[in-house]
Protein 1
Amino acid sequence: MIDERADKSQVNPLRNYPSGSQYALAVQNPALCFRHPELAYATPDLNSNGMPRAISGNFATVFILTSPRGKRVAIKCFTFHTDERASRYLKIAQKLASIDSTTQSQPWKMNFEYLSVGICVAGIWYPIVKMEWIEGVDLLRWIESNHTDSESVRLVAENFLSLAKDLALAGIVHGDLQHGNILVAPDRTLRLVDYDAMHVPSCDGSTNSETGHRNYQPVTRWEGPPTDFDRFSIWIIVISLFSIASDPLLWKLLHDQGGEYLLLAAEDFDDLDTSLSFSVLRCHRDPAVSALSELFVHLVTESTNILPLPVIPDDIAPDLRQTNPMHSEPLTSAKTSASTDLNAFHGRTTLEILAAVSSPLSFVALFSLSAAGVISFYMAVSYFLALFFLITAITLLLRSRREELNRIDASLKTQQLDLSSRSIAAVGIDEMERNYAQLIANESALMSELANARGPTRMRAQKEYARIEIDKNARKSAINDRLNNLNLSKRNACEKLLREQRELWARSQLGFYELSGNSVAGLNPGDKKALKCNGIHTAADFADVHISRSSALLILPDGRRVRIPGIGPKKAEELIAWRRRCESHAQSRYSGTLSATDTKKIANEFKPLEDEIKALEQKLDEDASRRQNAVNSEAKQWRTNHIADNRSKLEILRPELHEIGRNLAEKRGSVEELKHLTNAHKALLLSRSRLSFPHYVRFIHLGD
């Protein structure tokens, strides 16, 4: 939302803005410095010194205020001027308002209101952005507290990728994606803040002076399409988050406490081949981490201006993740479980029904013949035994032809072969586990050695870099003071010339103010007649008065002095007071402005001094840049000399880790498969026990 209401007479006419400390002094009295009702009655958060707590950035200072109803808001006060700020915020607000929140992966948008007449400092109004207060922790502090929770870190990484896709689909470029502008909510969803550098489609063609955080931007200025400006930052954040999710130890190895980055910093982008962090990530034992890092290096090396959105590591190297012991999953087999159809016999055949009916009838007939005396008892016993063995043989034959028994026997035979092969494949896993653990220990030792050696050097470089920056800012502050004084002098010169032009014009208008009626108190008709007799008809006909103790002289425009009968000191004072009122009234009617010629003339008068100050500022920037480049070169030389050996060891260790990891994954899979097969074999044996001969006899006679 944009507040366009502005009193032009009060809005800052120049381009110099207050400093953070000047804003803090003004915020002490919200009722005086704010017009917005929600801000005028709010209370600012205070620091330990009792002053409004300021959160300072490169180009703005943020204050937190609480309304009487307890609602917290943030206000951003700018410390520099841009011509397109108001129009950019209007376009951004319109674009964000057009996005349906229900179609987004998470509620990442922040509500804000741009106030053209926002805050009054030293009698001048400056624009501010009133922002919704968002509950969350910036990404860096969140990782510091949660880097050991791999599941949560991975969820945040996936949410960030989803957020990046939301922005891409909407055609929005944040412009400064970095840890400080990404807040993590309690539910692990993300919120984006700081829209100063945001680009929306309607901003095409506009300029933007912000370049983003140096630890999230390429070394050279982005020259690709505006829609791809965020891609480099997105890759840096995605690589860092997924790497930490895979191996929390990387946070302690590659992040220095107090560092304004995640795992990768600006020094890593200077030379990807000599970067310690990229060396560790490219040689990491998790193939997904190494593949993601390798892909980024390849894309940046080929062309920084063509970067697609990253994909999650699972999609980069799925075949490698399957062989990674850190992510191994049990193999499956189509033969590991028996079908429920094999647990019992189903559906009697005609022969089985005949056998079930004939066998008892045969025994009944035999006993009937024996009881009737047709055959002797001993012959009946002989026939009984013969009939019993015949029926048993027929039953065994019929059972052997059952499909259930044949299928389960075939499955058992196949399982026996699988069990034998898996048992052989699992041989030596204990030794391989020990070898792999030793390789992991060697890798950790190498990375720890690198991190321990790099830490002090990087900290020294960072401290020197910060010292140069502080020195530059201190010296630039003095230059800015000179520039502000110059702008003030320029403004005073413009105001003086405009005042002179206004006074000149007002004097030219005095001829329209006549001595008539009661325009001058205390003058009688005789006095006015005496004035007119001496040529004084209007306020333009005399310039001043000279008053002595007992007499008064009127000073004419040509400098002559005349004494007017009847005009003493008191009436002379009334006359000059009337003339001044006329002049003041005329000046109030003046609506002229300085011409372009006058403005240019004044600008030219101050240009040599302005050029001198700008030259000093440019020289200061160049000197600071040269010193910082020297620090970077020294750090780079140190990395080249001291990291090469350990890096080569890591690169040698990497294929060995992958190879033994692949073999170990296979053996772990074989062990898991052996367990599954053993359990399945037991289940199949149990199923076969339900297909035993007694169960079959019961089945053919009773059908169950």
Protein 2
Amino acid sequence: MSKLLRGSFAVAQARQCVNSWLNAGRNSRVFTPVPRNQPKMLRRASVMVEKLADPETIWKMAHPGKTHSMALPITAWYIGAGIVGFLLLPLFIPFSNLMLVVIPTVTVVTLIHFFFYSYPQWPLKTRIRQYITSRIFHFYGMYLSWQYHNDSKKLHHTQEQTLLALLKENATTQYSTDHNLGNITSIEDFRERHPIIKYEYIRPYVEREMQGTRNQLTKRKPTYFGKTSGTTGSPSIVPHTRFTGLQQLGNLALFMYNADNKVQWSELHWMRPVWKASYTPPRIIEKTESGVLRGPVTANPIWTKMGEIYTVPSIAFQIEDAGAGGYVQILFALRFRELGAIEGIFASLVYFAFQRMESEWKDLVNDIRHGTLKPDPKVPLHIRQELLKHLRPDAQRADELEIEFNKGFEGIGSRLWPELGIINCITTGAFAIYAKYLREFYCKGILLYSTCLASTEGFLGANFWPFNQPIPRYSILPRTHFYEFIPLEEISKPDPETVLADELRIGSDYELVITTGSGLCRYRMGDLIRVVSFYNQVPLFEFVSRASAMLSSKGEKITEELIYSCLSIAEKELKAAGKLERIADYSSCESVLMEMVKAPLTQKGSHHIYFVEMVPTKPDADVKELAKELAEKIDHEIAKRHFRYKELREINSLSPPVVAPVKAEAFHRLKEYMQMTSTASFAQIKIPRVLAKQELLKFLLNERL
């Protein structure tokens, strides 16, 4: 009996540890350990919880009787009872007396909530706008969450209704007429009538829209033309209309409501200034012949109407040079002690911002101490003068920063900003390596929340589960797009078969195909996703890679996800051996691309080349020997996980891989080069994990050690 009591006590204490972890001030993922002087059974229970419980299990342990279901605790009975009660109440209390009580009570409660909830240093107009917007989004998001839950039980029906609504929205367009889409009545009819397409198929319609010819791809007049980065090919242009804008706002409300149930999203990200680490210079925005602007979707005018809600004055976004603008962004973020969230779009942007902070912290501290902005000819005089109006000498803050910087940069994020709880950025695919370093070094204990999977074409999925780390999972949005999926084995076929959202299988990989309100029909996204779970009938998926981002000189199809996974394992082994501190960045290519640029090869036969920026443990380490060892480990790890690769290696059809070490910050220079030689903004640029462009390969060849 005594052992049973001690065991129950141990479990209770372990649960307290879990609760302390979950309810920590910034939703940190740091587990509160049990002290060594506590009973052995208690420590065992704590270790069991820490090691064996995934985020879902821990959440359920800390909230008995609750689930992660998005279903609202509202039934028809409760709604009916509430309506009847409200209607009958005037029979017992005179209506005038009731209003005398209700109106003042609601007003007082709202005012108290407003003054405690909103940021006091904002102008009153901004405070009111942000507060009212957050409340509207909360209640609208509550309704959309209820709708999402109901839709998840009848997915096929919902998707069919969504398809018909999207086709009806653009039924009178030239594209719809040319493809006879106006009288489609079912999913089957649509799939038979319209082929799977890529951007070139719709390019003539988009170009006519940009020239001012109306009703080509969209019925409504475009409000903006979103332009892709063109990292993996030529840029694509997608029209955005008021219809798609309202869809985006609805998706934002749905996300915000569910995020608020798990993290302090509105409080940290909406009701106080945010550091916007992403940057889009004005020169990137172009005006089309139709008079409508064209540029990155992140620079869509819909987001510029938010007002002065960032840590930096909005005039700073007019700085043309991304480097000069980035310095100003960091400077103003450091001045703000109460920072609760960073908006980075991509993990790489946040990583480079912290990296720059590490190299230029003395200038930043000096500017904060004296209320100055260091000389930079790339900041126009009128912008500099306006920024200086917002800068005041702050010796106290400068001293705080200097002390923390001198301690080193491990965990610097939470030391500079104790209330920093959320970094909103994409952490998958090409950005996984940056997210890993942020979690392990700069931003220990801070939640990196990949809120959605989005592209210029639209929101593809939303992440309602912030603690599913390090690989986020997303839900499709059944009322936003009509989804189809190409199975992995069909991707290379000219006319691939597709399956619907309610026909997917857990563990299988697919390429996304969407039909949208922008007039895109059965449009191949080129994104590979993996189904990992279901919410009722709605598939939940992880992003794998771009479908084109594969090493496949002999048909082996090595995805960028597999490359990163094996590279991480090799890095871990070399780190444990005391030879490598970390891998800062990487890319890869097939040997045939080297032959195309007439670069000398170190070995014969088809093989993979990995360009790796390594940080050895010892400054005088033999980097070339380390590269050979890394290549052997990558080869071994891929062979363990990929049967076709192993088979090709065993018969010598595929030669061993080669690791080509590159100079420090080579990939940062590559990113700057990509930005200078394209029309994309710095925020849009992604380092390709599998090289396809000869000019990028030539650049990295010049960066080799």
